[in-house]
Prior knowledge:
- Chain A is of the alpha/beta class.
- Chain A is built from 11 helices and 10 strands.
- Chain A has helices at about 45-55, 75-80, 100-105, 115-120, 125-140, 160-170, 190-205, 215-220, 240-245, 245-255, 255-265, and strands spanning about 5-15, 20-30, 35-40, 60-65, 70, 85, 175-180, 210, 225-230, 235-240.
- Chain A starts with 5 loop residues before the first strand and ends with a helix.
- By secondary structure, chain B is mainly α.
- Chain B has one domain (about 10-250).
- Helix content of chain B is about 70%, strand content about 0%.
- Chain B contains 14 helices and 2 strands.
- Chain B has helices spanning about 10-25, 35-60, 65-90, 100-105, 105-130, 135-150, 170-190, 195-205, 205-210, 215-240, 250-265, 270-285, 295-305, 315-320, and strands at about 165, 245.
- In chain B, helix 2 runs parallel beside helix 7 (about 170-190), helix 2 crosses helix 12 (about 270-285) and helix 5 (about 105-130) packs antiparallel against helix 10 (about 215-240).
- Chain B is globular and about 60 Å long.
- At the A-B interface, helix 2, helix 3, helix 4 and helix 5 of A face helix 7, helix 8 and helix 9 of B.
Amino acid sequence: MNEEISLLVAKNCSLRFGGIAALTNVSLQIKNGELVGLIGPNGAGKTSLFNILTGVYRPTEGQILFEGSPIEGLPPHRISNLGMARTFQNIRLFSSLDVRMNVRTSFIARLRNGLVHTVRRGRSFRTEEEEIHEEGHRLLAFFGLEEAAAQPSRSLAYGDQRRLEIVRALATRPRLLLLDEPAAGMNPTEKEELKRLIVQVRSEFGTAILLVEHDMKVVMGICERLIVLDQGRVLSQGTPTEVRADRKVIAAYLGESHAQEVTHE
Amino acid sequence: MYHSSKGWLNPRVGLALGLALAVILQLCSGWIDSYTSQVLIFAAINVTLAVSLNLVMGETGQFSLCHAAFMAVGAYASALLTGRALPAMLPQLTWTGGSWASQLTFLPVLVIAGLVAAFAGLIVGGPSLRLRGDYLAMVTLGFGEIIRVLLQNTNAVGGARGMEGILPVTNLFWGVGTAVVTLYTIISLIRSTYGRGFLAVRDDEIAAAAMGIDTTKFKVTAFIIGAFFAGVAGALYAHAVEFISPEGFNFLRSFEIIVMVILGGLGRPVGVAIAAILITLLNEWLRDLSQYRMVVYALIIILFMILRPGEHLGPFFRRLIPTGKKAPIAS
């Protein structure tokens, strides 16, 4: 029963910018450990939904519950502290920090030693730094990035930068990981590797994952459940097979005439 | 710019060595002529100012144009303490030529001056650090002018005439000691998981917030620490030159500190400290041409931008000193 309790619930969320409705009455649920894909054509509101979930925008209407407590309107760092981490569509690594330090920034929010202890550099400070170093190293090693630990983050290959973003997000110990178009700009081999990686993250860390993605192959291949957005509304929900057969989805992606063709077949 | 995880010197060892140097310099002060010792004290004060502004500008990436105003707050607070409050409370206290014990009462004066300036930093930083870039620069510029005009119109602190007859308590120990403590604080702060928060905020505020970092808190913290050390530097300055006036803490003074930070390489405390010392010496050499000083500063900055884009004194000096390690990659 406990597992059935929803990790994230959005109820009737709307987001409007003046007269433009980016999202209208969007509701969704994500359970613990679930791997959910969020798809939709360009301009469907995927990024807007992402932004209200992570606190970048406050929804104009509606409620968002994370582990039962409302989070709408909280600043992004508070939401992150509650256990929701994210990556970015356009990679946002800290360019003046090396790979190891990029991961370490995720530990700042739960440091035991604050400013004064840091400056004093006493025993408790050194122990904690050592622990963070170890844990960061374990994470990097798990993702095969330990060789690059001392390199500047921007010197990494594109695929590795995406991977590092995932490592950095995981270092905040999230219960829900939001991935914003992680396959963007990847070649087919990299996409296959990414799919393996996402499945591996879920099985290893038990993190629920919400995956926003354009690439159907990536989403269909690994997600248990899909949510389809179109023009700011939830168009369809269900397993990949159900969604693929949904006439409304085909219409939204390929146009009405195509939808008729497909159903006639 | 790229920050490696470990420095070449343990900060605590550095602190001990630096404080030892301050004590030795003070013990040798009998052999140092008064002009040289004055220049050394000015250099140390400038190091304190530049390294503390570096935390705000270089590490956290917040453009502040009111560092001299925090210095003024510290200078006036300390001058009032040693000139009025302390003589009233402890009439038997003698400063000049006094014992070590009486010298030590200067420590609380410095700390209080710093705290008053830090409070001013909280008042300015709290509301204005939600602003970015140019807007923050405007607010800090405005705050600097407000402080100057306030002091100019407050007769209790001499108005535009300033305060004179401040006791010359600042010596090599206090000057160099403060510079060393400032360097230690800033360096040990940056070289820690906590301190990476400042750099993360500078690099990408949105990503920093997404990683759970309270960006406003980090910016205000940097501002308050910067203001604290600027206030201490102001107190040292007041008790070194024995005379302060609002004009001494105007926008041009802030600009001078900014030049040191930029020359030293934003975000490189040791480079900034070296730049602060060099600028102090340059000021001495250019004393006859002091009205052209700002022209020289501008030229230096322009030349730097042309000759070494993105690479400043810090890496430049590191290359001169072979350490066996490869120089880090500059942006």
